[in-house]
Every structure is written in structure tokens, then in C-alpha cells.
Amino acid sequence: MTPHRIVTAPDLAPPVGFAHAVVAAPGSTVHLGGQTAQDSTGAIVGTSMAAQFDQAAGNVVLALEAAGSRAEHLVSFIIYVTDVAAYKAALPELGPLWRKHFGRHYPAVALLGVTQLFDDEALIELVATAVIPAAEGAPDDRAG
């Protein structure tokens, strides 16, 4: 269960797989750099959207853990893809992969189509922001 308040705006279409807004609990903010399907050697693994999402999402979790955070601390998530149609076609595979890495926690999410990512073989890049709650021992970034 996330310590942050998930907001569903009553005048917007119901969110599916994302939150309209997230009010972060006081704590320490973690800004993750973009995570692609790079393995520990820096090579892009997988040639399908689902395979690359699986690796990139695993990389997000590893980066969160290295920062002392967890998936339920995510408040914002941006997905960059080189082919929006391929991403949509892969949704039946992506849902279970999301739950594998992030559970049923859905932060505020945006999907953006781009012409190219830094690594030529990369199809997807994930950028995330998390807030480690002060209640879990993190200092409050907002404290003077």
C-alpha cells in the first residue's frame, strides 16, 4: 500500500493503469535517471516491447532500492517509446509485467512517443520519481 494519497478527479474519465494525481507524503524525493533495457554490462536486451519493458522496469526497481526506496513510493512515471502502436499492441503482456515489478500501485503516468532513444536498439525508456516518506525515517525535503 502506498503511503501517498492517490487522487481520482471526479470530472475526468476513470483512470486505468495510472493515477490522475498523487499527493506525496512528506519525505525525501528520489529522481531516477531514464532506465532502458540495458543489462549490467550496458547492452540492450530483448527485441520486443514487452521484453524491453521487463528489463527496464527491473532496472527502475534496482535504482529505487539503491536509493533506499520501493515501488510503492513512486509518485510519477514517464514512459518514452519509439513506437506507440507497438506499445499499445503489447499491453496484454505489459500489464502482468507492471504487476511483477510494481504490484498494483499506479502512480501518475504519462506515455510519450519519441523518434529515437539514446541507444539505437532501445524501444522504451522509463523515468520515475519516488518519495520516501518521512514516516519511514527519510528526512522531509520540505523542512527548512
From TrEMBL:
User: According to the lineage, what is the superkingdom?
Assistant: Bacteria
Fetch the InterPro entries from UniProt. Answer: RutC-like_sf (IPR035959), YjgF/YER057c/UK114 (IPR006175)
Q: Which sequence ranges form a coiled-coil region, renumbered to this chain?
A: none
What is this protein identified as? Enamine deaminase RidA
Q: Which organism is it from?
A: Actinokineospora globicatena
